[in-house]
From TrEMBL:
<feature type="disulfide bond" description="Redox-active">
    <location>
        <begin position="232"/>
        <end position="234"/>
    </location>
</feature>
<dbReference type="InterPro" id="IPR000397">
    <property type="entry name" value="Heat_shock_Hsp33"/>
</dbReference>
<keyword id="KW-0676">Redox-active center</keyword>
<dbReference type="GO" id="GO:0042026">
    <property type="term" value="P:protein refolding"/>
</dbReference>
<keyword id="KW-1015">Disulfide bond</keyword>
<dbReference type="InterPro" id="IPR016153">
    <property type="entry name" value="Heat_shock_Hsp33_N"/>
</dbReference>
<comment type="similarity">
    <text>Belongs to the HSP33 family.</text>
</comment>
<keyword id="KW-0963">Cytoplasm</keyword>
<dbReference type="GO" id="GO:0005737">
    <property type="term" value="C:cytoplasm"/>
</dbReference>
<dbReference type="InterPro" id="IPR016154">
    <property type="entry name" value="Heat_shock_Hsp33_C"/>
</dbReference>
<protein>
    <recommendedName>
        <fullName>33 kDa chaperonin</fullName>
    </recommendedName>
</protein>
<keyword id="KW-0862">Zinc</keyword>
<dbReference type="GO" id="GO:0044183">
    <property type="term" value="F:protein folding chaperone"/>
</dbReference>
<keyword id="KW-0143">Chaperone</keyword>
<comment type="function">
    <text>Redox regulated molecular chaperone. Protects both thermally unfolding and oxidatively damaged proteins from irreversible aggregation. Plays an important role in the bacterial defense system toward oxidative stress.</text>
</comment>
<feature type="disulfide bond" description="Redox-active">
    <location>
        <begin position="265"/>
        <end position="268"/>
    </location>
</feature>
<dbReference type="GO" id="GO:0051082">
    <property type="term" value="F:unfolded protein binding"/>
</dbReference>
Length: 295
């Protein structure tokens, strides 16, 4: 059985190469019990969730990393988010006018948006063209163009299970700086070996078996696994912020017409409602002027 719902790092002695392995099982079940998608859409969203987890291990931020694919195909937008503590969520938006059975799910034009939103500091966003509707190739292109880091990504999916592997060539690693010369041929050799991985192996072998299968002649260090799980970051407080951005007039109009403001989280389906009292709390000055805060 593969190592499911974890993110696990590995490195190679005397090289400038690091790797990550991700497996998802229960996480996907939790995502798809809340959103019912056709199987091809599940496959694409699952791969994007794996890719987001892999990328999160390459950046040092406390916050949220998200991947969003936008296209002119049957899937207009698909989003995967992960926090630094391994909480994942995802969603897909489909074009009702297009059939998922006709050609590529992502059409012939699209882009992949990588967003890093730290709890402190500035938000970063990078955009790369979607290569052949392929998430892995597009992300490799992003690292090549924007980060100038050699990066290879392998993604796999079958019903209910998804997995991925990332290899990345870095400028330097600690053990190489200790007077040990790095292997100059390591990157080409390690990526060539990784290209021999089969989809069923990536999905179903435990991580240590995957590494033994690919790299039994290399000196590999496998580190402790980080657990991954579905957990939505929505809250009434976050929706309150969105309502304040909407403005008092629009919020009060909905209250007057419907008695309360109703909002559902698109990711998890959680229902939220805001009463007149809530709106008064969000807009105390405006409510007082309108006389709404008096009842």
């Amino acid at each position: 059985m593969a190592t499911k719902d974890t993110l696990q790092r590995f490195t190679f002695d005397h090289t400038h190469v690091r790797g990550e392995l991700v497996g998802l099982h229960k996480t996907l079940s939790d995502v798809f019990t809340r959103q019912d998608y056709p199987e091809p859409v599940k496959a694409l969203l699952s791969e994007l969730l794996v890719a987001a987890s892999l990328l999160s291990a390459t950046v040092k931020i406390k916050g949220v990393l998200s991947l969003q694919v936008q296209s002119n195909g049957p899937i207009r937008a698909i989003v995967a988010e992960t926090s630094n503590d391994g909480h994942l969520r995802g969603i897909a938006r489909m074009d009702p006018e297009q059939s998922i059975d006709n050609g590529s799910l992502l059409g012939d034009q699209g882009q992949l948006v990588i967003t890093m939103d730290p709890e402190k500091g500035r938000r970063y966003q990078g955009v790369v063209a979607l290569e052949e509707g392929n998430i892995a190739k597009s992300l490799e292109g992003y690292f090549r163009q924007s980060e100038q880091l050699g990066t290879r990504i392998w993604l796999g999916y079958e019903e209910g299970v998804a997995a991925g592997m990332l290899l990345q060539e870095l400028p330097e690693l600690g053990e190489v700086q200790q007077g040990i010369e790095a292997d100059p041929d390591a990157w080409g050799r390690l990526t060539h070996l990784a290209d021999t991985i089969r989809n069923d192996e990536l999905l179903h072998l435990p991580n240590d078996d995957i590494l033994h299968r690919l790299y039994h002649e290399e000196k590999v260090r496998l580190y402790d696994a980080q657990p991954l799980k579905f957990q939505c970051s929505c809250s009434k407080e976050r929706l309150s912020v969105a309502l304040t951005q909407l403005g008092y007039a629009e919020c009060q109009e909905v209250i007057d017409e419907q008695g309360k403001i109703r909002a559902d989280c698109q990711f998890c389906g959680q229902h939220y409602s805001f009463t007149q009292s809530d709106v008064n709390g969000l807009f105390p000055l405006e409510s007082a002027k309108a006389g709404k805060g008096l009842h």
